[in-house]
Amino acid sequence: MRSQPFLRSQMLVYVVLVLVACWGAGMPRAGAAGAWPEAGTGNIPVTVDKLVIAFDGWGGDVLDPWQYLGTGLLQSYLNLRLMHRDENMQVVPLWATDWKQTPEGVFLTLDPKATWQDGTPATADDVKANIEALMGQYAPAFKGTPRLAYMKKAVEEVQVIDPTHVFIKTRSSDPTFLPAIGGANYHLVWFGPSAYLKQVGHEGYVKQPLGGGPYKIKEFKAGDRIVWERWEDFWGQMPYWKKPQHRSMEWIQVPDDASRFAMIKGKQVDMVVNIPYAIAKALPRSEAGQRGVNPQKGVLWTQTMKASGKMQITFDAEFVVKEQLAGWEALQQEPTLNPKVREALELAIDKRAIVDNFHYGFTALNQSLYSLGSFGWRREQGEKNSPYDPKRARELLREAGYPDGFSTTIHFGVFTGRPGQPEALEAIASYWQDIGVNLTIVQHDPTEFYTRLNRPDRAYRPMTLVTWGRQENGEYLAEQAASDVGGRAVYNERTNALQKELANTLDEAQRLRFMAEIEDEVLRNHWIIPLYDASTVFGYTDRVAAHPMPEFGAHFLDLHRIILKK
Amino acid sequence: MKLYMAKRLCEGAATIWIVTLVVFALLRITGNPVDFLAPPDMPWTDRAYLREAYGLDKPVWQQYLLFNKSLIRGDFGKSLRGNQDAALNVLLERVPATMQLTAAALLFSIVLGIGAGVVSAARPNSIYDRIGKVIAIAGQSMPVFWVGLLLILVFTVYLGWLPSAGGVDRLGLLGLIMPAISLGWLLVASHMRMVRSSVLDVLDADYIKMAHVKGLPWRLVLWKHALKNAAIPVFTLFAVNFAHLVSGAVVTETIFAWPGIGRLLVESILARDYAVVQTVVFFAAMVIVVVNILVDLMYVWLDPRIRVAG
Question: Mean of the per-residue pLDDT values for chain A?
Fold first, then answer.
């Protein structure tokens, strides 16, 4: 009899606990990835008619996967990649269901369900033919691809084992090879229907493109507009790679920032790519709740693709002198040759203020050479406190023999999708003014800048504000930044030796160690001032319920995953 | 007349050739297209391969000779961007959109310019004249991009009446309204001022006074007799403006994402797509030269008193 009141109170406690647990589970958590709204559930229809997106630009307009140049976002929707990154940044299968890299080469297992849009199966023969095509075979009018020389150098031969298994024999155990051909890290290689490409050639293919991705091309006007049509028989069945909810998708290129924003304000489009930070700051951010899900706080909302570009100041003078490049004599008296001066210049910049005030928190402070969250990035280095100490900076300048400061020049070029550079440079000029350094900022045409920035020119002296597109494999950045084979290299014998070791090992732990040592050496010499990682802001109308995509990225937009409410 | 025409055609051909030479030289000065097309991290070996593949490794004089040889055959080369289509096809794909925009802008500016100009001239220093002057000053002092953004703000963002980006192929005629007003607004001012001064000159003529004295209605005197005789300088301005609009709608086409040749030209210059830039400039120069020749010939038709000196 005495147990009954106990049971009642116990039950009450249980009920309260269960209610609290249920309530807690339903609460949105900052940045947490929960269940995505799915087509066909709740108020969301299984199929909707059209998705319209305004871009500032989508890179290359080349349909032929064997003859593209530059970056080719559109290829990601028309043709195939081997791998992908899901919204948790995990490398996941796309066409390849399994992969393994050994010192001898790369072994791939392909999805047996994969087909091209003409119904023919996508097989190991296609992998072989595509790799060979990218090495310059088959197409009589072949003009090359960005990876032509690299592929020729890296690949010895491609061996077809059976229709779903292929081995790509490499000449060395280069850890960047699989990322380069896989497609989960950067836009580099797409695979097209080889039999069809050989049959119709370049001219025939661009007239009637045919791929293996989730869309077919319905209308195409280069540099202006693309209308995609859902491929009803698309073979992908993964959550991140399946038939889209929308029957068609229209891309419009609207280069002007204000016009693009007006389009989304006027609800002429469902999504815009690249909203300037100054405008985006006033819009609700989905990152406050579940990333990529409409926070339902108004008719417009945003999602930020973090760390799409990496910003750093590179001191070139020392290497121009070291390599005795054209005009090196004129740099003999250059103040930035002195490491104390470089250290002073870094100490004089309040990086946190730039990120928080000039970029409204859309960029991320990153003290590493490598992209935020990428392979090789160390949290303890990337998130290290950036000392802002103008007093110590002045002392260092005095010790270096420049008590009254000096005048210098920085060069830069603005690259699409990496906003905020001019604002950052204005801030840096102001900080350096405080320690007596007068900075002249020279902006260049981005093409010219990025070309002449590299060796053998190193045309912009004594320093540059450099940006890198996001690289998931930091080994590539290490190679480019700190070895004598790199285009923008700042290196010494030690970093050079470390990079050579790095380029020849597949052991992950060793690679991480080499990369960390390279980074420490470069930063110890103050050859580079890491500043921040830029982001790209996407805007959506309230018609968009969700847009699942990776938190970090340079290019992959996962537009096929967008879920519309009506 | 035949001799005059032949002379004008030769002058036109020489002008076009000089324009192509200048464009060829300027483009080569700005740099190499491979540097733009290739990603920043593309290895030097691949860049060298591409330069060779596109014939850009040859000396400039050789490239120029090849360019002229192709031009004579009507071959403008292939676009270096996109799908490497023939540059002429790339241009022709964009011409209809530019023609639509130009025609609509010109129509808007002619209707408003003539209307305001004639009314201003008919009643000098009246309230109508003052309104006309305000229109002229506003038109000439407001930059095209500003008018465009203002229209977008009002009619797209606030009122939601008009779409703001894309061509007729995407938006239909509704999409033409704001770009045409934005582009034509600048011309309203010049058309209005030219019509006003021409009509004012004509209104002082004896035959107008005679028509008036004979009891013809003022409206008829103004719109039929005065305007017709004031038409020659006005017609010249219309024609020249049309030719300039065809090649010069760059800002409007960028703001309204209009798929015309102005935007194509900017994109191609930035990408150093030599073949397309040369083709667009060739086309624009051709339009200006041809329109000017036609205007000269039309004078004779418009005013039989004009005779051409051989």
Answer: 87
- In the predicted model, what is the mean pLDDT of residues B172-184? 92
What integer best gives the mean pLDDT of chain B? Answer: 82
Query: Chain B: nearest CA to A225, how far in angstroms?
Result: 9
Instruction: Please give the share of chain B, as a percent, with pLDDT higher than 70.
Output: 91
Burial class (CB in 10 A: 0-12, 13-18, 19+), B105: buried
Give Cβ neighbours of residue A512 (< 8 Å, ≥ 6 apart). A375, A376
CA–CA distance, A73 with A91 (Å, rounded to integer): 19
Nearest partner of B51 among B41, B36, B73, B61, judged by Cα: B36
Contact criterion met (CB < 8 Å) for B43 and A267: no
DSSP A357: I
DSSP code string of B247-279: HH-HHHHHHTT--SHHHHHHHHHHHT-HHHHHH
Chain B nearest-CA residue for A61: B82
Q: What is the ipTM of this complex?
A: 0.78
Q: Which of A143-147, A414-418, B19-23, B239-243 has the lowest mean pLDDT?
A: A143-147
Residues of B in contact with A300 (CB under 8 A): none
Instruction: At A142, list the tokens.
Output: 């072949």
What burial class does residue B118 get, using C-beta atoms within 10 Å of its C-beta: 0-12 exposed, 13-18 middle, 19+ buried?
buried
Coil, strand or helix at B9 = helix
Nearest CA-CA partner of A301 in A278, A285, A287: A285
**A441 CB neighbour count, 10 Å cutoff:** 15
For residues A8, A12, A15, A19, the Cα torsion angle rounded to the nearest 10 degrees is 170
Nearest-Cα distance to chain B for A486, in Å, is 9
For an interface test with A, the pick among B47, B51, B84 (most A C-beta atoms closer than 10 Å) comes out as B84
The strand pair at A463-469 and A246-253 is best described as unpaired
Q: Which residue's entry shows tokens 């297992």?
A: A109
User: Distance between CA B103 and CA A212 in Å, rounded?
Assistant: 43
**Cα–Cα distance, B46 to B199 (Å, whole number):** 65
Give the closest residue to A209 by CA, choosing from B82, B271, B170, B76: B82
Give the mean model confidence (pLDDT) for residues A444-454: 77
Residue B185, classed as helix, strand or coil, is helix
* Distance, first Cα to last Cα, chain B: 6
Judge: A266–B49 Cβ closer than 8 Å, yes or no. no
Residue A428: pLDDT over 50: yes
What is the CB neighbour count within 10 angstroms for residue A98? 12
Q: What is the crossing angle of helices B144-151 and A257-265, to 10°?
A: 10
My answer on whether omega of the bond before A550 falls inside 30° of 0, hence cis, is no
Gap from A90 CA to chain B (nearest CA, Å): 25
